[in-house]
Amino acid sequence: MNLIMSDRDINIVENRNTKYIDLSKLKINNCIGCFGCWTKTPGKCVIRDDAVKVYPYIAKSDKVLYVSRVKYGGYDSVFKTMVERAIPVQQAFIRIHNGETHHFQRNVKEKDATIIAYGNISDGEKKVFESLISRNAQNMNFKSYKILFIEDNMVETEVKKILEQWEK
Amino acid sequence: MGKIMILNGSPRAPKSNSKRYAKIFADYMTMECDYVELTSKNHSDICSKIGEYTDVLIVFPLYADALPVGLLDFFKTLEANPPLASKPVISIFVNCGFLEYTQNEVAVMMIKLFCQQNNYKVGSIFMLGSGEAILDTPFRFMVTMAIKRLSKSVVNKSYKEFHLSMPLTKRLFILASNVYWTNYGKKNGIDKKQMQTMEIEGQL
Question: Sign of dihedral through CA atoms A148, A152, A158, A159?
Fold first, then answer.
């Protein structure tokens, strides 16, 4: 399946293959670093808020479009909060992956990821964001990824373009 | 003589490894030193006091390849509420559970960007790999010695970069981490097989 996960409302229509999640409309608390999802209730976060409905979609999608404002070269708070809360999809145990130590994944599909990074982004921020996504690719099971840096007012247009490409 | 604030940016600050690292740093610190734990409610309070310090050491764990969101939010608050007088030098201590300390680099880059955008000087930087468990291993002394050097670099204003990890091969590290996490689960009454479930929210 396909997933569009955004930190802001986008005027698009979901279809049979594509799930759209607007994180700004959900109640998602910060991860508290308790390791409960690894060592107490494996695969389930102990905080039972809206995040528990989101990470199963992240796991089962093989095509994802992530939309986030950029702050200090990383995801801004709304998106980053969800990224942190998605760690139940991983195990505590460590493996060697592409020559580095990383966590084993649970039943997480390999993904073709597109990341729309929006805002007034400097060249320095772009470099940091590219490094972040390169790291995320190892930990979030991206088999390929593409980053689009765009201004705020172009978000909806770009999302629709990508959605059209997916539907071809 | 300067004055330093040690700011623990861990989401589980009172029970965190960051607290243990901060304590070691404080033990070797010869400048006047205050320890503060970041919560969701004290960002403004910290911002109002931060101008009283010549240095700040931010101690935190890597979260999803970057800063924990609570710390990110703190930087946003600090950007909106900068100190009125002088700005402290910001030093960084970041630890991750992976063997490679280099996995912390993005978090460091993000803080450097904050400093650049908001005119703070970056001080010393310490990147620690295998930071989840190293304090309870025979390699603890290596961390302690390195933190002592970090502390000295801040006092002398001879800011430097430090990095450290357990001196183990990747395979040995994985074996050791298997034991660590299996024992962690045992304390909660679950075994390794249960921890290795492929199910997410009860679904395969």
Answer: positive
Per-domain boundaries in chain B: 3-188
Of B171, B184, B200, the CB nearest to A89: B200
Task: Tell if the CB–CB gap between A33 and B64 is shorter than 8 Å.
Answer: no
Select B3-188's CATH number: 3.40.50.150, 3.40.50.2300, 1.20.1050.10, 3.40.50.360: 3.40.50.360
Q: Which residues contact B46 (CB under 8 A, 6 or more apart)?
A: B5, B7, B36, B38, B74, B78
Interface with A, mutate which of B200, B201, B203, B204 (most A CBs under 10 A): B200
* Torsion angle, alpha carbons of B54, B56, B57, B59, to 10: 170
Residue of B nearest to A56 (CA): B200
Which residues partner with B93 through β-bridges?
B59, B126
Q: Domain coordinates of chain A in residue numbers?
A: 2-167
**Residue from A28, A57, A70, A72 whose CB has the most chain B CBs within 10 Å, to mutate:** A72
pLDDT above 70 covers a percentage of chain B that reads 100
Note whether B148 and B28 are within 8 A (CB): yes
Cβ-based neighbour number of residue B135 at 10 Å? 16
ipTM: 0.96
Q: What does CATH list as the number for A2-167?
A: 3.40.50.360
Mean per-residue pLDDT, A1-25: 94
**Chain-chain contact of A33 with B117 (C-beta, under 8 angstroms):** no
For residues B40-55, average pLDDT? 97
Q: For residue range B83-98, what is the model confidence (pLDDT) as tens digits?
A: 988 999 999 999 999 9
Q: Do A107 and B105 touch (CB under 8 A)?
A: no
Enter the tokens of residue B198.
């492929």
